[in-house]
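User: Okay, second chain of the day. Same drill as before: sequence in, structure tokens out.
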Amino acid sequence: MTKFSWRKTALVAAVVPMLALSACSSTGGKPADSGDAAAGGQVATTERMKIALITHAPAGDTFWDTVRKGAEEAAAKDNVELLYTGDPEAGRQAQLIEQAVDQKVDGIAVTLATPDALKDALKKASDAGIPIVSLNAGESVATQLGAFTHFGSNEQLAGQAVGTKLADGGYKHPVCVIQAQGHVGLEARCAGVKEKVPGTEILYVNGADMTSVESTATAKLQASKDADVIIGLGAPITLTLLKSVETAGSSAKVASFDLNKELAQKISDGSVLFTVDQQPWLQGYGAVDALWQNKRGGFNIGGGQAVLTGPAIIDQENAGDVLKFAEQGIR
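Assistant: Same drill. Structure tokens below.
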């Protein structure tokens, strides 16, 4: 199988240097002369500001821990009070945006997995003069919904990268597993794979129930004897698919999107072919820092275009390099 270089394939832009929102507050604010190792330097002396980070994160998904760590580090550096919350239910996420507007935050960073459900709440934010940055999902609609920039991976491009790598490896019948039907980013990933490998099948599973994910994928692999690779669209899903392959007695290989420590180890030992990392730490860091830069100087990072944090392919060749950062919780 052709080896890809993580450094050569990464399309990474440089980032310039709760049910109640108040219940999930992270604060940064040591005296400016004290320094802060976590933030990589001294705390900004700019006026204290409040930023809400509102995601569609489901409970227990370690991906979002990494996003949050990046956001918290930027907040610590920028003298920002960070109000973090997440809810996978679109209507509830919209309510959290409205709560942030009511709290008169200085900026909102938001994921746009279900943009139609969020557009009214985001309009209220825009009408209130609150700057908006989007991250992770919804790149194609970000500007329409009021965001001045977006931090994330181009998911169609990421899917195409996976499809190209699979095609180069001779795979013809992938099963692409979507854990949240209607999620624009996940649908785009599988669509990108299918562009490069037309024999790709889509399998929908309930990502909120890993037992159900395992049983549904096992049944699919037992019924589809020609399936030669199964693709998870998130590290916890992929790790569950490894169990399905074993239970089904399938010869299918496993590939992935996204990353955590355990998945990096599985790639390193050859259990998983590769993953496409969108570098979520950068998404959290960039979104918060961009809002701070906007307030301190009216800067609009990205010039109206998305700031790409991926895709970056991680395979057995470079997984060891990435694993040390995954162990620190920043990959």
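Residues 280-297 form the longest helix (18 residues).

User: Thanks, on to the next one.
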